[in-house]
Amino acid sequence: MKTILVTGGAGYIGSHTCVRLLESGYDVIIMDSLANSHSLVMDRLAAITGREPLFVETDLRDTEILNGVFAHIPIDAVIHFCGLKAVGESVARPLDYYEVNVGSTLALCRAMQEHGVRDLVFSSSATVYGAAEEMPIPETAPLGEVTNPYGRTKLMIEQIFSDLHASSPDWNLVMLRYFNPVGAHPCGLIGEDPLDTPNNLFPYITQVAAGRLPELSVYGGDYPTPDGTGVRDYIHVMDLAEGHLRALEHLDAKPGFDVFNLGTGRGCSVLEAVRTFEAVNGVPVPHRITARRPGDVAVCYADAGKARQVLGWEARLGIEDMVRDAWNWQCGNPNGYRGVMVPMDWRKVEMEVEQRR
Ligand SMILES: NC(=O)c1ccc[n+]([C@@H]2O[C@H](COP(=O)([O-])OP(=O)(O)OC[C@H]3O[C@@H](n4cnc5c(N)ncnc54)[C@H](O)[C@@H]3O)[C@@H](O)[C@H]2O)c1
Questions:
Q1: Which residues, judged by CB distance below 6 Å to any ligand atom, belong to the binding site of ligand 1?
Q2: Per-residue pLDDT at 344
Q3: Which of 97, 150, 204, 301 does the annotation list as catalytic?
Q4: What digits encode the pLDDT tens for the residues 198-219?
């Protein structure tokens, strides 16, 4: 069975994808700095799948460690999740975003080139479409008008991969443009765990429902949409994880450079998400309509037809599953991974006491 290097595999989407990889028999190596994640994820992956990934805690830009991994482990393919992802933060700290997102990708490409690994799946984003005029958005929609450094790193990285393939067609590269990943593994052991106040709607909703935040601000109630609030294409993270397995198979079946949208193809408004959450989970989500947020578009959803036709993949889970699983994760882990007490190893304590005597 194949060995997959998963960069950023301790993170939200990476950890859910690792579950599916391990369950499907792949061997998994995770490289992650834990800049936005927690080592407890490894125990959770083992608890869910009965198999353990190999974990290397490192910044991907540490080329000595990166080359060491490629030199010592026969890697068949890479899934590259690692990166910083907060749009607002990227406006305040552009250099960090270019250094981490672009820098880690360049380091990875160099190491892959040196060690003869040519197959990679990349976490891109619907943000590369900017304010798209065509709805639903096909992969052929024009790219460009991206308004923040985070989005520009995604565009740049896609361009780097495209140039790499043009320079040497033995590179097999799939760009996956995610729409709005939400939800959690249904067992509630892994999920989205923002370090600070969440930037995304779903963790915000769950934290308001749990009483950790007072209320949800719904940015804009006067958009040209059925209920006036913004419409997005929310996709369950387990569906997204499955998309990565299909992309890996595609690398074998049809080598080359390719791009796929991963979304449901269905728009859901902010109020629809809030009301579904309340109805499915029986918990109120206090919310208030406020002014529009600069840079937000009214409507954004995917044309998911290419992934269906070429990868044989489509989203199976609906908004009810997303709100149920997001709440299940929140209830089981009120403070995310950080609130979890690691069980005390009393035997180790006894040994230490003994040694000091
Ligand atoms: N979550 C979304 O809404 C969304 C949407 C579109 C695209 N994406 C992209 O998908 C990928 C995964 O997103 P996520 O939501 O799982 O984010 P995440 O922050 O949970 O995961 C990213 C992981 O990368 C790690 N990391 C960051 N910098 C690193 C470095 N220099 N070296 C090694 N590890 C590093 C973090 O510790 C984290 O575990 C990202 O590239 C993100 O831009 C996410």
A1: 8, 10-14, 32-37, 59-61, 81-85, 100, 104, 123, 125, 178, 181, 200
A2: 47
A3: 150
A4: 889 999 999 999 999 999 999 9
**Which residues are within 8 A (CB) of 238 and not within 5 positions of it... i.e. 6 or more apart?**
16, 20, 183, 185, 186, 317, 325
- How many A from CA of 225 to the centre of ligand 1? 31
Band (pLDDT 50/70/90 cuts) for residue 117 is very high
Of 48, 51, 52, 66, the closest CA to residue 7 belongs to 66
Structural domain 3-339, CATH architecture? 3-Layer(aba) Sandwich (3.40)
CA–centroid distance, 348 to ligand 1, in Å, is 34
Farthest CA pair distance, the chain: 74
The model's pLDDT over 316-351, given as tens digits with 9 standing for 90+, comes to 999 999 999 999 999 999 999 987 654 545 565 466
| Beta bridge partners of residue 121, listed in sequence order | 79, 174
pLDDT tens figures, 46-84: 999 999 999 999 999 999 999 999 999 999 999 999 999
Q: CB pairs under 8 A, 24+ apart, for 196-199?
A: 199/86, 199/87, 199/88, 199/89
Give the separation between CA 357 and CA 352, rounded to whole angstroms.
Answer: 9
CA distance 237 to 116: 31
Q: Is 223 a catalytic residue?
A: no
Do the Cβ atoms of 10 and 38 come closer than 8 Å? yes
